User: What shape does this take?
Amino acid sequence: MLLDRYIARTIFGSIALVMAVLLVLGALFLFIGEQGSIGTGRYTAGDALMYSAMNLPRFALEALPAGTLIGAMLGIGALARSHEITVMRAAGVSKLRLVLATLGAGAVIVILSLLLGEYVAPRLEQLADERKAFAKYDDISFAGSGGAWMRDGNTIINVESRSSDEQFGGMLVFEFNDERRIAAIGRAERATNSDNQSWQLSNYAETRFDGDRVSAKRVASRNLNSAASAGFLQLAVAAPAQMSLQSLYRAIAYRRTNELEYGGYEFAIWSRVARTIALLIAVAFAVPFGFGLLRSASAGARTTIGLAIGILYFFLQRIVESGAVVFGLDPLLLAWVPTLLLALAAAVMLARAR
Assistant: This one.
C-alpha cells in the first residue's frame, strides 16, 4: 500500500506540473485570441483578461488527456531513470501491480475532471460569455432562461440551441406593434446567419394577429432582419460540448419528449464519458515506458512522444465529433473510437514490455 501511494504521488506530481505549464500557455493563447474583440462596444483589455481566466477550466478539461499522458510518462521515466522500477520488479512487483498503482493517480485526475466538467467549467464559461455579450453588444437586451432571449426594437427572439458557429435551432420570433401588443408569433426549426443584419429561417411557421382576425401560415424559408448577430448568439447560447452532463441529460429528455433532434447532445454525453475513461488509459499507457530500452529515454524524448500522442488523440476526437454531427453517424460508436484506439495501443505495449 505504501508503495502504491508513492508511485501514485510521483505520477500525480508530474501531471500537476505539466498541467500548470499547459494552463499558463492556455491563458496566453486565450488572451491573444481575444485581441480582435477588444474595442468592440465596451469590451476592454481587462474584460479580455477576465474572459480568458474564466475559460481556463474549460481549457483544462480539453488539455487533460494530453497533460495526463505527458505527466504520467515523465513520472514513470523519473522512477525508471533512478532504477526504482528495476528494484520494484526485482522485489516481485508485477506489471499489473504497477499499472494498478498508476491508476491511483488517474483516479484523482478523473475526480477532478468530473468536478470541473459538472460544477466549475460550464458555470464560469457561461458567465464569461454573458459578460462578453453584454460588453460587446450593449445595444441588444438579453434576459431570461431557457436559451437566449434577445430584444431588438419591436422584436423579441428566443433561441433554444446552437449546432454550429452560424447555425442555431428552435428560434422563436415575437413581433410587437407600436402599441406594445403582440402582432405575430413564429417558430423556425433552424436559423442560419446570412450576414450581420439578416437571418435565414428554415421551415418557418407563423401565427399573425390583426385586430379580431388570426391567420396562420407555414413557409419553407423566411428572411429576418435583426441586429442579433451570430456572434452574439454564439456567446449567449451554449453548445452541447460546453454543457454539463446533467444539462445534457435534461436537454435530451426535453427534445425526445417534443420529438426534436438530439443526436448532437447524445454524442456530447458519450464523448465526455469516453474522454474521462481515457484519462485512466493515458496513465496506464505510460507504464511500458519504464521497461526495456524505453526506461533510459530522456525527459525531452518522453515529453515529445507524449505530446505527439496527445495531439493525435485530440485531432482524432475533433474529426470524430465533426463526422458524427455532419454525417449523422452513430454517436455511441464514434465517441469511443479514439479512446478504444488508445486502450488498444496501451494493451499491446504492456503485453510486449519486459
